[in-house]
Each structure stands twice: as C-alpha cells, then as structure tokens.
Fold this sequence. Notes:
Blueprint: H1 3-8, E1 21-32, E2 43-53, E3 62-63, E4 66-68, H2 75-87, E5 95-100, E6 113-120, E7 134-141, H3 142-148, H4 155-172, H5 186-196, H6 205-211, E8 219-221, E9 231-232, E10 240-241, E11 243-245
Parallel strand pairs: 1-6
Antiparallel strand pairs: 1-2, 1-4, 2-3, 2-7, 5-6, 8-11, 9-10
Amino acid sequence: xxxxxxxxxxxxxxxxxxxxxxxxxxxxxxxxxxxxxxxxxxxxxxxxxxxxxxxxxxxxxxxxxxxxxxxxxxxxxxxxxxxxxxxxxxxxxxxxxxxxxxxxxxxxxxxxxxxxxxxxxxxxxxxxxxxxxxxxxxxxxxxxxxxxxxxxxxxxxxxxxxxxxxxxxxxxxxxxxxxxxxxxxxxxxxxxxxxxxxxxxxxxxxxxxxxxxxxxxxxxxxxxxxxxxxxxxxxxxxxxxxxxxxxxxxxxxxxx
Length: 256
C-alpha cells in the first residue's frame, strides 16, 4: 500500500465481526470386545466428543469444544488451545474444515466460526476432563449427536460436514491403519471401514483390495522368516491370512 493510502485508511469505517471462534470436531472409534460363545469381531462405534456449555448462550446444551481467537494467535493456535482448555485433550494434528458465517448463527452478534476436525485413536481422548467453559465432556455416537441431542449454535451442521470429510478419508486414504494392530485380517479392516462408512458394501472386498491395480502395494501378506504365510483365528473359527499396511500411498483418481 502506498504512503498516501496508509494515511487515508481508517479501520473504523469498516464493520468487523464481534468475534472469531474456532470449533473442533473430534471423532474416534471405540472398541469393545463382545461377550459371546463363538469368536466374533469386537464392537466398534464411531463417536464424537462434545461438551456441555456452562454459560450463556446455550447454557446446558451440548456443543463442540471451541472458543474465541485472540489477537496474538492464529485461528489454528486458538483451536488447539481451546480444545486443551475445555477438554484437557491434545488433539494432535487438526485439519481445517471450513468457515461458518450464516447471519444469526450466534445470539452474541456477528460471529464467524472456523471449524477444524480430526479422527483420532481412542486413547487420545481417554483422559478428557471438562474445564473452563465446559461443565461436562463426553463421547456420543453419531446417531445421538445428530438425531437425539439438541446441539448449540449450528454445530449440527458442522458435525455433519466433518462426518462427510472423515468418510472421504476412510475411502480414499489408509487412515484405517490407525485403528488396527500392525498385523490384521481383512475382516478387521472391512469392519473399521464400515464403522465410519456404513454404506460401504463390497462383497468382493478381499479380491479387490489385494488385486486391483491402483491399490496394489497398499497391503502385503505377513510372513515369517522362512516365507510362510501367517494367519490368526482370534476373531474367527478358521485361521485367516494376516496382512499389514505398507508405506505406499496410492494416487487414486475417479477416472481409473
């Protein structure tokens, strides 16, 4: 900007937002062993972390953790700080979801929110504890969060948008490896995918995941030092071949 422009610019001429908060959607997959006579896969559920607000507005309602960005920090720094302050959770790497600016979304005024999300292992949320503006903190299934609870602000929409993003990640990346042991069966992998994407139905999953050209190199069979294939019957009556992820990240395209 020219020197003349600097002299004539007046920030007071422009209306600025009344606040810029960061909201954080933290997803995880919980795992619980089933108490059955026959061997079966554990129960897995996709859950989202919510806090119960203590103060106006929306006091007593469940909401996403988050809070206002300060002048001396980035919006990403605000997201990590607020997540830690309200829940005690270090969210690791948060991904940017989008901006939410519908007029009237917040009764406090013109509030433009930036949302972040992450899909993390269950242990990362084990020591969650409500503090600061949060009265409680808990994990809820997507059905509870989106269909049964009345959420604060436009957090219902934010969670729905974040849910679509992690579904895309589950289908287009190898993020499933975070929720599996180093060696696993394809049934375990299939279950993790379906937990996040219930609509995923692939009757020929084993053949496709091991033979489709664009996916070759994602997995490899686990073998012992002598080259013999290793198997497991932990969750099945018959031994099933064990696999492991490689470090290969394929570049997939809708055109192939």
